[in-house]
Write a structure and sequence with these properties.
Layout: H1 2-7, E1 67-73, H2 76-89, H3 96-118, E2 123-129, H4 130-135, H5 137-148, H6 153-158, H7 184-196
Parallel strand pairs: 1-2
């Protein structure tokens, strides 16, 4: 989000969730996004602007609009490690089993949402590996600019802070192969974890 803002894209945020030790640069969120299933009226003011949402909420985007989606991808071992630290700071104590189950469910969800996105004619998607953005900010900025059109890639690259790339995984992620979709109970488990983290 900070790169898009630096590049010249207006961002749609409310700063209700302020910067903290987990995200020193701020969260760049809009609280209304979390209520999209019940209320989409805020989207009338979102045209031409960038807003942030977790992938679980993409399914609730109204189908009568066009979207360009920059989908950040990160090694799930790093995601789970980061989430664990955030939860611990909130006074919650996830177990290794909790983390293992979360990774398994996120793996299933990501496969499901990517399959769904590929079938949406009103959504253009650019998948951006988090590791590439942190390690090659100029090249990554150029990719995003090519997708979005005419952004200031020098300014975009200048706001990347590689020192904030924490919880790096050793080696590639171990992906658990699953072909079935999330059932209702599993979907609620994913939503509960994301809600605990403040993203839903």
């Amino acid at each position: 989000m900070k790169m898009l803002e630096a590049g010249g894209v207006p961002v749609y945020i409310d700063n209700v969730r302020v910067a903290d030790v987990d995200n020193p640069g701020g969260y760049y969120e809009l609280e209304d996004v979390k209520k999209i299933k019940e209320d989409t009226s805020w989207m009338d003011a979102a045209g031409g602007k960038a807003f942030k949402m977790v992938s679980m909420l993409l399914f609730d985007l109204p189908g009568d609009r066009r979207y360009r989606i920059v989908f950040m991808e990160r090694n799930l071992d790093e995601v789970i490690a980061s989430q664990r630290k955030m939860l611990e700071r909130m006074g919650k104590t996830p177990t290794d089993t909790d983390d293992h189950d979360a990774k398994r469910l996120f793996t299933k969800h990501l496969r499901e949402v990517k399959d769904w996105l590929s079938a949406q004619e009103n959504m253009d998607v650019l998948y951006m590996p988090y590791e590439d953005v942190m390690g090659e900010p100029q090249a990554s900025a150029s990719r995003v600019s090519g997708f979005m059109g005419g952004l200031d890639t020098v300014k975009m690259a200048s706001v990347v802070r590689p020192e904030l790339y924490r919880n790096k995984a050793e080696g590639p992620a171990v992906v658990e192969e699953t072909v079935d979709e999330l059932d209702d109970e599993e979907e609620e488990a994913v939503k509960e974890r994301l809600a605990d983290l403040g993203y839903m």
